[in-house]
Amino acid sequence: MSTEFELTPEEFEGFSNLIYERIGMRFEEKKNYFLSKRIEKRISEMGMESPFEYLQYLKYLDKNGTEFQSFVNSLTINETYFFRDFPQLTGFAENCLPEVIEQKLKNNEKKLNIWCAGCSSGEEPYTLGIIFEEMLENSNNWEIKIIASDIDETILKKAIRGEYEERSLKDVPPEYLKNYFDATPRGLYRIKDKIRRQITFEHLNLGDTQAMRLHKGYDFIFCRNVLIYFDDISRKKVVDHFYVALNRGGFIFLGSSESIGRVTTAFKLRRIGAHLVYCKV
To answer: Does the reported pTM lie above 0.90?
Structure first.
């Protein structure tokens, strides 16, 4: 393939529309270079000659969606690490979590359900597992279920392995590193089973209405730095599902640069410490 490979405006529009129709992500024209490089790689690996041939294959010949999934895997950006956005997590642990726990205990209930939507390589759900272990008195008496979902099947396999390089652990306090990780012979750090068993990983397209409707009964939803890839129409559909999936009194956490105020007024915006969070009242 030529090093000057770049999609024409018509080709870019064709791929962009297909991605939007299938998973709700909208790629603007400024992403032409990014999309072109991913498509060039897939065309080469498939032994094809042109973007047109590849697009036709994705549309009409990829019957079980295997190649489209490989294509989607190549599009996701999985830059994350443990305890990312520490101030927000502090607000969650010291303000939101105690509030929900207090209400649970009033109802004589010791069950917490959490959904990490767009969990990437697993650092976020494992971080939450550590926080619950630290913040809950007699955590063994609680039933904690963390559903961690992502559209990228390749990155989910890494999340399930639960093994990480030092750069993913740069913000992990030394005491936590000692208590919740085991060093491996390969120089990696593996999350301990007492955290792993809280978490169920799931392949999920947030644009799949039927699959999204199956998610219900959550006390917390984390969807950080994911909705930025959606336009307002797709974002509203996803957020509407989140509203249904969240228990009353539950919280949804977004990335620091994200807001859903433009697409819904269903959630109550609350200030928790230095952060704004959305609550279902």
So the answer is: no
